[in-house]
Amino acid sequence: MYRGRFAPSPTGPLHAGSLVAALASWLDARTHGGQWLVRIEDVDGPRCPPGTDAVILGQLAALGLVPDEPPTWQSRRGELYQAALDRLIAAGQAYGCACTRAEIAAAMGPRAKHGELIYPGTCRPERGGTRGRPARAWRFRVAGHIDWQDRQLGAQSQDLDAEVGDFVLKRADGLWAYQLAVVVDDAEQGITDVVRGEDLADNTPRQIALQRALGLPMPRYLHTPLVLAADGHKLSKQNGAAAIDLADPPARQREAAERLGLPAPAAHLGLADTLAAAQQAWAARYGPAR
């Protein structure tokens, strides 16, 4: 059975860009007669103001997007992440790392594509490990290419060694990294299809590598076009994107449907009929065949 999800990070209220991702995931689940879940990705607790999760859930309800099961919170799932990390360590696929960001930058320089640093594997056990220094983080050992098929973007490929390097699973501050948490959560919740913004497509090869290492099923992926701000950059909380104006929920959903490249539902329709019209348009493009 189809199971999809919307997984917002509660660093601020939903904005127009996050509504597009929420609507797309909801439409795909409804088109395929499946279930739609909401997962609050608050694994980075210091960046999540108290109460923002409740604001997001209230926004979704006002917009007609109600999950089929009670929401889950990543901050309550640390034991699952630790169990997965322990499995990777036991299999030799994860190792402790003592390097600082400054040391990594000095060794490799910045990585423009991801805005991060490509880790050169300095603390791999076969290279001497941490050399007596305490481990600051835990990293996943990457190897080779990951090829995958996206329902929107088509054939995709990434060289994990050259473009990513051994990536963090548990951070130096003790917080769980997004890559491990999302893979564990998707598998534990039985997610069959991931529909999300195109900015996260670059994360997919890392998640597939972890799924393979942990023996977990790989969902199908569909990455939707980004909503851009006036300056051409991705609309985000970091660049001041405004919270969704809920005075007219059908209008907000019409705008989100248009940004997904769907025909705009008629302006006179109420919320339920607006969503039904958007679903019909989504089905014509992406479903229901699987």
TrEMBL record:
<feature type="binding site">
    <location>
        <position position="196"/>
    </location>
    <ligand>
        <name>L-glutamate</name>
    </ligand>
</feature>
<feature type="short sequence motif" description="'KMSKS' region">
    <location>
        <begin position="234"/>
        <end position="238"/>
    </location>
</feature>
<keyword id="KW-0479">Metal-binding</keyword>
<feature type="binding site">
    <location>
        <position position="99"/>
    </location>
    <ligand>
        <name>Zn(2+)</name>
    </ligand>
</feature>
<keyword id="KW-0436">Ligase</keyword>
<feature type="binding site">
    <location>
        <position position="178"/>
    </location>
    <ligand>
        <name>L-glutamate</name>
    </ligand>
</feature>
<feature type="binding site">
    <location>
        <begin position="5"/>
        <end position="9"/>
    </location>
    <ligand>
        <name>L-glutamate</name>
    </ligand>
</feature>
<dbReference type="InterPro" id="IPR014729">
    <property type="entry name" value="Rossmann-like_a/b/a_fold"/>
</dbReference>
<feature type="binding site">
    <location>
        <position position="41"/>
    </location>
    <ligand>
        <name>L-glutamate</name>
    </ligand>
</feature>
<keyword id="KW-0862">Zinc</keyword>
<protein>
    <recommendedName>
        <fullName>Glutamyl-Q tRNA(Asp) synthetase</fullName>
        <ecNumber>6.1.1.-</ecNumber>
    </recommendedName>
</protein>
<keyword id="KW-0547">Nucleotide-binding</keyword>
<keyword id="KW-0067">ATP-binding</keyword>
<feature type="binding site">
    <location>
        <position position="119"/>
    </location>
    <ligand>
        <name>Zn(2+)</name>
    </ligand>
</feature>
<keyword id="KW-0030">Aminoacyl-tRNA synthetase</keyword>
<feature type="short sequence motif" description="'HIGH' region">
    <location>
        <begin position="8"/>
        <end position="18"/>
    </location>
</feature>
<dbReference type="Pfam" id="PF00749">
    <property type="entry name" value="tRNA-synt_1c"/>
</dbReference>
<dbReference type="GO" id="GO:0016874">
    <property type="term" value="F:ligase activity"/>
</dbReference>
<feature type="binding site">
    <location>
        <position position="237"/>
    </location>
    <ligand>
        <name>ATP</name>
    </ligand>
</feature>
<comment type="similarity">
    <text>Belongs to the class-I aminoacyl-tRNA synthetase family. GluQ subfamily.</text>
</comment>
<keyword id="KW-0648">Protein biosynthesis</keyword>
<feature type="binding site">
    <location>
        <position position="97"/>
    </location>
    <ligand>
        <name>Zn(2+)</name>
    </ligand>
</feature>
<dbReference type="InterPro" id="IPR049940">
    <property type="entry name" value="GluQ/Sye"/>
</dbReference>
<feature type="domain" description="Glutamyl/glutaminyl-tRNA synthetase class Ib catalytic">
    <location>
        <begin position="3"/>
        <end position="243"/>
    </location>
</feature>
<dbReference type="InterPro" id="IPR000924">
    <property type="entry name" value="Glu/Gln-tRNA-synth"/>
</dbReference>
<comment type="function">
    <text>Catalyzes the tRNA-independent activation of glutamate in presence of ATP and the subsequent transfer of glutamate onto a tRNA(Asp). Glutamate is transferred on the 2-amino-5-(4,5-dihydroxy-2-cyclopenten-1-yl) moiety of the queuosine in the wobble position of the QUC anticodon.</text>
</comment>
<feature type="binding site">
    <location>
        <position position="123"/>
    </location>
    <ligand>
        <name>Zn(2+)</name>
    </ligand>
</feature>
<dbReference type="InterPro" id="IPR022380">
    <property type="entry name" value="Glu-Q_tRNA(Asp)_Synthase"/>
</dbReference>
<dbReference type="InterPro" id="IPR020058">
    <property type="entry name" value="Glu/Gln-tRNA-synth_Ib_cat-dom"/>
</dbReference>
